[in-house]
Structures are given as structure tokens and as C-alpha cells.
Write the C-alpha cells for this entry.
Amino acid sequence: MKQIVFLLVLLMVIFLLITGCTTPPSSPQSGPSGSPTRPGTSPSPSPDSVKWHEQGFDPINASQNHEVIQEFDKAILSDPNNVNAWNGKGNALFNLGKNDDAMTAFDKAIAINANYYPAYIGRGNVSFALGNYEEAIKAFDKALLIDPNNKWAQEGKERVLNPPGAAQTIDESTLTNKGFALLKMERNEAALKEFESAIAINPNNSWAWQGKGEAVKNLGNTSESLRYFETAISTNPNNQWGWHGKGDALFRLGYYIEAITYFDTALSINKNNQWAWQGKGLALARLGRDQEAVDAFSRSLAIHENNPDTWAVEGQTLMHLGKCSEAKKAFEKSLSFDSNNRMAQEGLMNAGDSYYCHSQPSGSTAGNAPLAVTSPSLHQETPYPSTQQTTVPTTPVTLNSISGHIYDCSYPYGANVGIANASVTYGNISASTDRTGFFSLPVTGETDPELTINATGFHAYRERSSRVVNGGFHLIPDSVYSGMYLVVWNSEQSNPQNWLRKWDQQTQFVIVRKNASEDQIKDLVFILKNDNYRMLTGGRFSNVAPPLIVDEKPKGSDRDGKTVISFAPGIEFGGIAHSKDWDKDGIIHYAEITYDTNQQILPTFLWHEMAHTVSAGGHINKWPSVVSEVEGNGTIFAMDEKIFNCIYNSPPLRSY
């Protein structure tokens, strides 16, 4: 292979010599001392340089690499800026397996003429031989940037991406390096195969486990990636990127407090990890801890000032703090590094608009819109999980076995955190779950058998096999069950029809202008930028889409799928709210919140009432009832968030 590559390059340079073009015709040239020359001209080589250059490329001597190198050295001695001689020497050294020396020769050629594409091809060949796939791809790409139709560069790049029989001939380190190169090219499925091949060779390869986690996360399986990052950490506790990767995955799943813990651990290993500081800032912003978030973003920028995304999210967070002039500077800084940064463009436009950037309502702290920024080498998935129907009934058929997962319901929808060693029983047949929560159980011909599920630390659960959510049954932790019972199943005299009901679609938020002041509407719009609704619906749905503002309250079927916020005289302090389930099938059809015309709109009032609209709706003023445990700034208590997670991880009308 090396001889073939060498001969191809020799023929190419001979062609260049014959045609009188020692460099690409359209590329800028450098004079003998590296100074620019006029476009379209070439440095005048000395007669000896030409003679030795031609001798160096004599096909008769091509197989005699040592002699060829001597010829090129003579040419270089005669003319130190002979770019062709340096490139030819590099190819001869590469044929001898002297990769480091070959790389030096190619780099020298590039230093003489940065647009000399044959040297980049040579550099790509050496990098590939060394297993540095990322560098190889960069070199071939540079050659193609100069000469887009160059077949040697095209074939070289293809050889890196699809080496014949590579998996059988290269070691775990090479496989891992190739995996990370493919990650940066967004070829996640191909990267995953490389990481898995590396792990097959060495199951304790922490970097391969971390890379597998990144690939799986990029492919949209964020919850699955958690265990791969955990393996990366357990095999090498000093792998800062394993800690960072799991922190990023937890952030995407909505576990902001837990994510901060992992980012902090990454920072304890390397305090200059700019991505860990940025990730921590994003998680703090999600929690409404905006000043701390700004401080974290500033630490990230102190390490790497040229990151336009970090400047943009810092500006966005400063807007939440009402610091509009500082936000404007941050957005301008972002655009100075990337004039097309959309977040900064929109932020700069909104920073001067009081509708988006104004002082917070009295007694509140800033809300925070979703921040979809992560490491450039990674790719943020859709911020919110799919909104399709959660309960998947099975077609009545005679079953021979049942398999699925047992999950902890206290995590957000779609996280699917398995419970190990749970017991699943049907009649007198039992099975235990593995470490991922998976089980398989034989049955005796029933179409929809009832299962009994038990696990230490969780409330026992009995359910029909068809009533799965996301492919599993979700158990309620004992620590969450008392609050879940109060909210969902405990009937009150004032509300005797409590049952588990929930939204199965993204609601549209509607604000009715009638009887409302402009300040009340403005405050509602501002507070709704804080995506607490995502926590109230177990991570399934969002309130970040701008609300629809109408003059009159919708009626009848026009209310379907909507959460309507209106104003009327004589409403009790703090407001009232309810949800409607017309068919009593556990699916909410619409919801309403009503405030008095003189009510000051604060986050605590909005999110307190909003909690009535997403579940059973009973107003139980006993901890940890979800409808009463809302902090003054509108933050949902951690226990209440777990209750909502369990509601939205349960089938409608679930019996406890």
C-alpha cells in the first residue's frame, strides 16, 4: 500500500513538473524566504535544485528510498525552500516507516507554502498509519479544501473512515481514537461500533466506555448512556470526561441538582475544564440560581474566552436577572466570535425590549427559559421527550411469556432507571430483574395477566401486563408514596373523585386579556419563561412556547388541549384552578386557572395553581402535597417533582 501511495504521489509531482506548476495554480505563493509573491507567479528555483528534484523523482530510483532521500537532501541543500523536495523526502521517509521524520518533512513543506496540498495528503497518510484518525481526516480535508476533486485526498479520507479489515488488525487504543474522530464527524453509529470493539478487547478501557456513552447519548438514548458513563468512572475515577458526560446526560434528563454534583467532580479533577463550568452554569440556570450560573459561565469564559455559545447563555441568564445592559454586552461579545450565533442575535434584539427584559415582579426571582447548549463536539437532543401516548395497550393475543423492565418512577419520563433484584410474580411463577431492571416470565396462555411486583424500598404494585409505560412498570419509592397517596388517591369531602389523571399531549397556554391589566399579562408571560411546567409533568411537556393572548375566554370544544388563564372579580386570594377529564379515562382534556382582577401575579401563585391542572387536583395542604409545596420564587420542591414524575410514568387511572 505504501509503495502504491508513493508511486501515485511521484507521478503527480512529475506531472506538475512537466506542466510547469510546482503548486496549485490558484493558490498564493511564497518566495524563497517565505515572503509573499505576486499571485500567479512561482519562486525561481536554482538549476541545481531542479536537477536534484528531477533525479529524486526518477522512477528507476523510486524503490531505493535511501538513495531517493539523499537526492532530495541535495535538492534541499541547494534550495531550502524547495517545497517539492521536502514533500518528496517526506514520502520516501514514510515508505521507510520513519513516520515522525516524514511528518517533519511534510510540515516543512506546508510551512513554505500553506496551500501545497500534496503535503497535506502525505500528512494524512502518516497520521492514518499512526492511528491518529482525527488528524488524518483534518489533513485530507485541508487538501480537499484546496483541491476539492483531488482523488488521492478523497481516497485517503475514505480509507480512514472505512479501512478494510481494520477491526481485526488494530489495537484498542487505535479503535478508541478512531471512535472519537468519528464522534466529531457526527458519525455516531460508526463511532459506537469502534468503541464496542475496543471494549471487547479491554473491558476496562475507561475512554472507550466514555465514548460509547457519548455516542449513545448523541443517538438519543440519554438514559441508557448513564450506565456507560458510570462504567467509565468506575474503571477510572480520574476520567474527568466520564464525570462530565454523566453530568451532561443527567442535565438533559432534567436532574439538575445531580448533574451539578458530577460537573463538580469533573472540576475537582481539572479545575480548567471549561465544559464542566459551562454545564454547571446551565444546570444552575435551570434551577433558577441565575447569579451562580453567571459566575460559572464567567469561569468557563476565563478559560476559553472565544466560545460564542457560553457568551450567549451568559447573556440570556443576565436577562433573567434583569441586567439588560450587561446581557447586551455578552450577546455582542458572542457575535464578535460568531456573527451567525442565533441565540446571541435574538438575545441582542430582545435585550432592549422591556417585554423580554424588565425588572422582575415584586417578591420573585428570575425564571429561566431552556438553555440548549452543550460541548460543540456533542449534539443536544430534542429538549423534551416525545409527547406520544404513554400507555401502549397490547392486542389481545395468547401469551407464552412476558418480558419488560421494572423502573423507578421518581425519575423524569423517559429516564427509565431500572430496579435490580425486583420480584415479578404471576400465579406461583416468579422472576427477578437483572441490574438493568429487565425480567422475563413464562405465562400460561392468558391474554393480559396481572403481575405482582415487589422491590426493597418500593411500594408493592399490581398491574395488568398491557399497562406498561415506555416498555416497563414503574414502582413508587416508599419515600414518595405517602405524598403520592395524598395527591392522587386520598378522597376529600370537597373533592370525592380524586383519581390519577394526566395530560397525554402538550397543552397550549392561553392568557385571556378581558379583565386583566397589561402588567398582569406581562408578568404572566415573564414567569412562563421559567420551564417549571416540565417538572410538573414529569419531564414530558413544556411551557416555553409563547402563550396565546386572546380577548375572550374560549368555550366548549375550543378549550380542548388548552390551559386557560383568565381574570374575574371576586376570586379568592392566590387564584383557583382545576383540570377536566370528561370521559373519566384518566386523560385531561383542558385546564383553567382564574385570578382576581386585582391579584398581583407572582411565581408562587402561578406554579401553585398550575399544579392543580396537571394531576388529580385535590387541594391538600399537608406536606408533601404537590399543590401546596411551591417556594416563594415558584420553584417546585424536590419531593413534589418526584411525585409528578411518578404520575407521568404511570398509566392513567393507576390504582395504588
In short: Residues 173-237 form a domain with the Serine Threonine Protein Phosphatase 5, Tetratricopeptide repeat fold (CATH 1.25.40.10). The two ends are 68 Å apart (CA to CA). The chain is about 45% helix and 10% strand. The chain has five domains: 2-164, 173-237, 245-259+269-383, 401-475, 508-648.
